[in-house]
């Protein structure tokens, strides 16, 4: 492990016992202590580059204070433009930010855009209440406009400050106001989340040692057989998954120990978004709690779900919620494939400026179009046993598609990514295009368009529910 990874591991490990201590603090002390600890971590790991995050926070606070009506679009523009400046700092004769500053900047961007949308929703609902003389039932809405201290405290809260998961300001505010945090579940769900972390960590170290990524960039790698080169991407994605499974499960444990994102199961919480329904348990009735609001990874479904589109739902789940809620509905296109492509483009930009991100993320819409075409033209015509066999093949190709796209994500450079993809003859692109052609030839075009239309209607219904939840 690199020194940076050891620092990440140390911060994750320390956050778990510290979280249990925070359960004993009163709201004002909890807020101040979480801010102080978060700032300490930021300054200790980022140094002078802490000013980047501070400028981003100040700019967003000014936007939500003086122009709440346009805050969602202005905050998105401001934070994303600052990301560009942040990544091109050397062009302005500034020292390049390190990986810790980059991690904090990425998560801060999500938080501040979400905060601007929450403030906009608060003012909009308040305006409706005044005009209609009635209180509208807003689920998870703000009770007041956050002060500058609130914004700073939320931005630099130590929980997940550089590891995630993303959580909304309302989730943070609910955490501060928990009436009896000590009585909420903590130890058992925390241990449950940590149970597989040693296994993931050991598998990561073992496989990464046997199959180093750097070997892909050598001439010697190209001398191996096609099947060896193809198999290498399978192992690379396995290493990639084990690394993030361990990190995100540990990050979730840090949230659980502090009680962040703990809501009654009846609230039907969503990762990233929080409760989706109003829930008031009967007096005296036992209440079951969960931590779905801060769940960032579903390891089992990531590996074993069948479709490419479903795989995205179980990976980095809180960020997927953010993309689905703030980016996808505002895409400048109506067609599902184009809106998905736009969302993937924004996601690639958020991750960085490396060409490998864009090559990988923009391959996803092609894979989605291929699987949609084959489902409409082939699977729909099969019997139960045929559909089961189809799903197994679909799952296998889904995993290989993610293996393939992962190479762009880790190699980063366009030349390295394209060199590797060409060494296996762009196999996933070829298969995806063949599936689309086969679907068209077999008459799946009409069924595909119908299925896409139904998918768009379902997405609109989901968006409506989410807007009401806001």
TrEMBL record:
Among Pfam families, the record links this protein to: MBOAT
Q: What is its main location?
A: endoplasmic reticulum
- Pathway of this protein? Phospholipid metabolism; Lipid metabolism; phospholipid metabolism
* UniProt topology in membrane: Multi-pass membrane protein
Where, subcellularly, is it found?
Endoplasmic reticulum membrane
Q: What is one cellular component GO term in this UniProt entry?
A: mitochondria-associated endoplasmic reticulum membrane contact site
Q: In Gene Ontology terms, what is one molecular function of this protein?
A: lysophospholipid acyltransferase activity
Which keywords accompany this UniProt record?
Answer: Acyltransferase, Endoplasmic reticulum, Membrane, Transferase, Transmembrane, Transmembrane helix
Q: Where are the transmembrane segments?
A: 6-22, 34-64, 76-94, 197-215, 227-244, 356-374, 424-443
Would the keyword Ribosomal protein be found if you checked this record's keyword annotation? no
Family to which the UniProt record says this protein belongs: Belongs to the membrane-bound acyltransferase family.
Q: In its UniProt entry, what is this protein called?
A: Leukocyte receptor cluster member 4
Record the organism.
Pygocentrus nattereri
């Amino acid at each position: 492990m690199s020194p940076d990874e050891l620092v990440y591991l140390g911060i994750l490990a320390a956050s778990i016992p510290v979280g249990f201590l925070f359960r004993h603090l009163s709201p004002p002390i909890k807020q101040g202590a979480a801010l102080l600890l978060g700032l300490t971590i930021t300054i200790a790991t980022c140094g002078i580059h802490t000013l980047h995050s501070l400028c981003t926070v100040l700019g967003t606070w000014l936007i939500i204070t003086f122009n709440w009506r346009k805050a969602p679009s202005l905050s998105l523009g401001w934070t994303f433009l600052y990301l560009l400046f942040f990544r091109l700092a050397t062009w302005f004769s500034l020292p390049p930010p390190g990986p810790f500053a980059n991690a904090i900047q990425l998560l801060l961007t999500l938080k501040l855009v979400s905060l601007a949308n929450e403030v906009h929703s608060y003012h909009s609902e308040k305006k409706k209440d005044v005009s209609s003389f009635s209180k509208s039932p807003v689920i998870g809405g703000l009770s007041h406009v956050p002060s500058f201290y609130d914004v700073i405290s939320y931005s630099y809260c130590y929980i997940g400050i550089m590891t995630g998961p993303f959580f909304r300001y309302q989730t943070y505010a609910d955490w501060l106001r928990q009436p009896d945090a000590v009585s909420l579940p903590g130890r058992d769900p925390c241990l449950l989340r940590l149970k597989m972390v040693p296994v993931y960590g050991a598998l990561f170290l073992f496989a990464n040692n046997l199959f180093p990524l750097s070997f892909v960039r050598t001439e010697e790698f190209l001398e191996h057989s096609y099947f060896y080169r193809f198999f290498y991407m399978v192992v690379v994605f396995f290493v990639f998954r084990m690394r993030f499974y361990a990190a995100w499960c540990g990050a979730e444990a840090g949230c659980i120990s502090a009680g962040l994102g703990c809501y009654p199961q009846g609230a039907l919480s969503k990762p990233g978004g929080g409760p989706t329904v109003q829930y008031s348990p009967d007096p005296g009735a036992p209440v079951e709690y969960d931590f779905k609001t801060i769940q960032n990874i579903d390891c089992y479904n990531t590996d074993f779900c069948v479709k490419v589109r479903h795989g995205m739902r179980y990976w980095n789940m809180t960020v997927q919620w953010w993309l689905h809620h703030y980016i996808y509905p505002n895409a400048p296109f109506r067609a599902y494939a184009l809106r998905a492509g736009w969302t993937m483009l924004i996601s690639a930009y958020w991750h960085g400026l490396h060409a490998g991100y864009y090559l990988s993320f923009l391959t996803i819409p092609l894979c989605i179009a291929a699987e949609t075409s084959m489902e409409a033209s082939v699977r729909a015509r099969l019997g139960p046993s045929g559909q089961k066999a189809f799903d197994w093949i679909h799952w296998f190709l889904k995993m290989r598609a993610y293996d393939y796209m992962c190479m762009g994500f880790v190699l980063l450079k366009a030349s390295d990514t394209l060199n590797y993809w060409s060494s296996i003859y762009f196999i996933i692109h070829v298969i995806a295009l063949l599936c689309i052609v086969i679907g068209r030839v077999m008459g799946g075009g009409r069924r595909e368009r119908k299925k896409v239309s139904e998918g768009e209607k379902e997405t609109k219904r989901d968006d409506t529910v989410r807007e009401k939840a806001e």
